[in-house]
Structures are given as structure tokens and as C-alpha cells.
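Entry 14. Two folds queued back to back today. First construct below, sequence then C-alpha cells.
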Amino acid sequence: MAWKFDNNIPIYIQISNIIKLQIVTKQLKSGDKLPTVRDLAETAGVNPNTVQRALSDLETEGFVYSVRTTGRFVTDNVELIQKTRVELAQQELDSFVTNMLDLGFEKIDLVAQLEEFLKGEPYGQTN
């Protein structure tokens, strides 16, 4: 089944982001071999040139490396992976806070709301 893409963002960037997220969330671990360009293109339902561009960008950023005649592998650069994880978390937090403020919550309410959510309690429903 082909992946679903946002028409507002270039597909190669979206593929790169998907693979990067798989690395950061440890779905792909350091040293794992990536599928071939053709296999990824078939899975994603895109042209192999699009996948090649995404993988080239990932290689430039240091998330993957090539071994001649063997393929591409996930980096063992733990610092890069951790830094990216923190950056992605920061983006999620920024989005959460912005959305909550747009809903009319005050910043002071956000911590209590999050704590209750994590406890599995609806906000404002505690005894």
C-alpha cells in the first residue's frame, strides 16, 4: 500500500522525514540496513528518483551512510539521533502549547491539564 503524502510538501522531504522519525524512534536501529531504493519506492508508491533524493539528503545530514555495493545503513551517531529527538519533541511541544492557547487555555493551566491527561483523568474532573 502506497504511503499518503501531503501535497504541500515535496515528497522527497516527507520520505526523508519518515525515515528520520523511524531512526529517532528506534524503529530503525543503528547499523540497520535500509531497503533498496527500488523497494522503498515500491512501498511508498513513488518514483525511485524521489527516494534516491530523500536518501541522499539523509546521507548528507548524517542519518545514513553508504557502503559501496552493500547498501545504505543507519548511522551509529547517537548524539545526532538524540539531538534530533529533542528537536522533534520541541516542535511537538510548541504545537501543543500553541493549540492549547488557541483553545483559550492559560499557560498556567497547561501543566495541570497534561498531568491529569497522563493520569488518565479528564481535565477538571478530579475530586
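Second construct, same run, same settings:
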Amino acid sequence: MSGTATGARARLSRTVLRVHRTALTAWGALVAGLVVWLVWLNEVTVDAVRAVEAECSRGPGICVDLIEALDYSEPTGYVGFLICYSFLAVAAFSGGALIGRELESGTARLAWTQGVTPARWLAAGLAVPAVALVADGTVLVLAFRRGWSAHRDLMGDHWAFADVFVARGPATVAYGLCALAVGALIALILRRALPALAVSVAAMWLLNLVLERCRASLWPPVTRTSGTRFELPESAWQLEWGRTASGGHRATYHPPSHFWPLHLVETGIVLAVTALATAAAFALLNRRTA
């Protein structure tokens, strides 16, 4: 009996792969393209920038124009932006194509009449892209961390910048999985592909916006007070700077060492939303098909 069930799950997974192979292939191509771009920046562009710097050391000349033409920081920032907000594409796919289109076209109900339970159908539909998101997201994070940290003197982006903050750690994967779950839940609620696509993207954008606005409060900041003016640690994320009632100086900030606590707390929140959305999706599906 267990062998039959295992075989059925394998066939269902292959069906999901076949039906959505175009979207999964496009996602894989995007990941590969971003990784190649980062490798090119680290292995080719950075050498050209260093050569320009060496030339500039002999005299100013046209150094500004050359360095701008061979910029390293800006394109690396573009990659970080795409990695950070890739969850919006996942939300669109999950709500619009993965679940929404299956429900709207009646394909899902056809599968349910052929020995595939609704819960198994949804589990297979989520599991296949989830595996791809975890694997590809991990590759993107590792590649971006290498590209962002390898040549810090050429990078203008601060570690607290929204896209850099997400792209440098597991929050990238968490947001992708959350978009998958939220998209599925909204598709089950609306049961129409295009409205589900739009609402899924909007919901994930709102979640990210709220967490971005609250990010500085996810871990207690450092507050420093002194009678004389002082300098903050290098790369500190300054939240407040002002004068005390006694005329001293006061600053509230996050040092670079707070990146991981802040990042992991946000990742945990996003994963909690993912779990709630997944549970709600299965509960709603069971109630409607009972």
C-alpha cells in the first residue's frame, strides 16, 4: 500500500514538473544568469576597475569617467535588488499559474476525480517549486555574499540597505517560500488566476514593506551617550543622533554585528507567516472539498 502511495506521489510530482516546466526553466535561467553576472563582476570587471585605479595613481586625468564606465558597485547592487525582490515573481507564479489557473480551468477537479486527493494535489504543487526555491535561493545568497563582501572598498551599498539586507542571508529563501504559500492561499480563496496573481503580489509587497519599516526594531539597538562628540563604529546603522538635556551627545544605532540577529528575527517572522498561510491553504481546501 505504501509503495502504491509512493508511486502516486512520484507520478504527481512529475506531472507538476511537466505542466510548469516552462516557468521552472525560466526561474532556473534567471538564477543561472544572476550567478554568472556576479562571477563576471568578481573575476573580470573588478580586475578592470583595479587596473583603472592603478592608472589613476599616476595622475588624475580621465579617471572619474573610466571608473564610472567600469563600475562594480552599481551592477552588484542591481543583482542584489533582483535577488531581494524575486519573491514577487514567485507570488505571481503561485497565485496565477501554479494554483489559480488549475482551479479556474477545472484541471484540479479533474485530478481529484482520478485518485488524487485534494490535499495530495496541493502538497505536490507546493513541494516541487519549494525544493527549487530552497536550492536556487541558497545558491543566489552564497554567490551574492561572495560578490558583496569580496571587494568592500568598491561597494557603496550599506549592509542595512533593504535589498542588500535580504539578499545576504536566508531571508531570501524565506520570502520565496512565503510567496509560494501566500499565493496558493489567495488562489484558493479567489479561484481565479489573474485576480489571485495581482492580490498575491500586493500581499507580499505589503508584508515586505511592513517588515522593512519595522526592521530596526527587530533587535534592541545600541544607545551611546557622551559629554563630548564621538564617532560611531564603522558601517554602523545610525537610527538617531542628537543632544541630551545636559548638552551631551546621544546616538542610537545598530553596529554591523547586529546584522545576523536582525536578519534571523525577520527570517523567523517570514517563516511563521509561511507556516500559517500553508496551514490555512490546506484547511480551506479540505473544507471546500469535504
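Quick look at the second one. The beta strands are 222-226, 237-243, 249-254. Residues 1-5 have pLDDT under 50 and may be disordered.
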